[in-house]
Amino acid sequence: MRRHEGRRQQKHLLRALAGTGAALCLAMPARPASAALPATTAPPPLLAARDLGDLSLEQLADIVVSTVSGRAEPLAAALGSAYVITAEDIRRAGATSLQEALRLAPNLQIARAGALGYAITARGFNGTLANKLLVLMDGRSIYTPTFSGVFWEAQDELLEDVQRIEVISGPGGVLWGANAVNGVINIITRSAADTQGTLAGAAVGHNETGAFVRHGGEIHRDAGGDGRWRAYVKRWRWKDLEQPGGAARNDGWDRLQAGFRADWGAGTGGDRGSDRAGFTLQGDVYEAEGHQLPNRQVLRGAHLLARWNRQLRDGDALRLQAYYDATSREQQHLDTADVELQHTLARRGTHRALWGAGARYSRDRIDNSAALAFFPAERSLASWNVYAVDEIALASDLDLSLGAKLDHNPYTGSEWLPSVRMGWRRSPAQFVWAAWSRAVRTPSRFDRDLYLPGAPPFLLVGGDFRSEVARVLEVGWRGQLGPGATLSATLFHHDLDDVRTVSPGPGGATVRNDREGRTRGFETWGALAVNAAWRLQAGYTRLDTDLSVKPGAVDLQSPEGIGSDPRSWWKLRSSHDLGGGWELDALARHHDALANRSVPAYTALDVRFGWRVSPAVELSLLLQNLLDPGHVEWAPAAAELQRAAFLKATLRF
Q1: What's 576's domain CATH number?
Q2: Which of 108, 164, 245, 524 has a 20 to 30 A CA-CA distance from 136?
Q3: Rounded distance, CA 61 to CA 55, Å?
Q4: Over the stretch 419-431, which tens digit does the pLDDT of each residue have?
């Protein structure tokens, strides 16, 4: 009964959300012809630069990030390992999904496991259920309390609406809380003011096809004030991939998604650090059906988010955000409500501080089966947090940032997450930073409530699992090597304690915290503007992991159950403007072998040809995996990624 009632409630929410979007479309007419926007709206100043490689360290001050410190700040002065994927990067790469767009970040480790199955992480412990990377979309966390990670097959976005993706490798617990242990991905979409007019597109390829349409207009003053709106619908189909040898995996998906956004005042994207006054209301609804046999999996979801920014007289700023998210999949329904308040203080003397508080409530309902069960089958999870950060100018070229967060969860109670960061502008062309942080990965339902099989005798039972702890030291440098050449480099060392294990017990194996050790490594990326028409970007990451079972303990997990990481990987991108509206782009990437999964090393090359026929029409051809007939990136039951072509056309009017 509860399952059917939950589905009925979700259907009502989907209809209401779709109705809200339709009402916005009807009630908010576009600008009159006399005030029509140009067919192509210019991107915000942030994205006007073709590539970060064109910029000096001083010019990087115009590139804004908000994920590192919680407020909008220049990328050049960010006290952390930050990489920005711009809208232009995504377009020039020909990315067809969020997951493929994330491949552009050199500090992320990404392996494709199926049509929509991905293993994505930063700094180790990768897996399709990776649980140490926090992902946000416009300030909405898509973390699931089921396993402390992301169901990537349920995530999608209209890539043409993405303003930028900020990828932070390293802990972000002070601002973003537990589970931001190895990194944070913050996906920020454009404001409605930047997406006026109509955009339509269609694509066809070996492995996927789809189409979308988006329209944006003005909210007239007599209809509620000076604002803008947009609404879109997107239909996409991912075909079944094959295993080596040609056997079908039956892992394709059909997805229909629609959404809207409205901004009043100076509404912005999902920048947590934005302090411009305004109000934003946005939402999405989707349904996806998988090709799995014998029973197709169906994913349904919807969310509604409201965000209010207010400038105060003394230069301070308030930000209030709340959202509701409902998702369902086979055997599971999850409802989440979240609210957060942040107060950003203007500079007072040498201090610039901010503080905030938040609360979240989730209700997770699972239909148990003979294969696995969660006890209790339905659990309500409530958490809250308070945090504060103070940035202190010790000298004109030296800054200190002190931050702490108290994060309370229903499993282990309160977790203390402190951080100390320093930055030194050694010269106008060089910036050095260092940081020490404590981060935790709190228990999930997989750790505490999972039972295998679904009835006695149990082989695995949830245990008294505590939080995994990481104490992280980082040292970074970024600078300008010459005209049009920039470089960023970071050394990191993670001391790990209470890492998850599966240990023998009297009633079956149980989940415990009996591993410890460290991960350490080096990550670097740089960019070079060869000339006005040709730009290069490259990145390299080296990762060493050393874990051991605590004295007297036993871990029954196989090595791949802990994580599967290459020792190193590199990426190289080239973007060349050929003239006459023609573009040539290439992305080469190499990953060392995954020894514990028997996945050999591979090198892949994607090439894109683009043609801007006119300001309103763009065509592109993406050729993927050109270096070999096929390779695998994950195992077991691996998908073989073969050579493929993808043709796309977009029209603006």
Answers
A1: 2.40.170.20
A2: 524
A3: 9
A4: 999 999 999 889 9
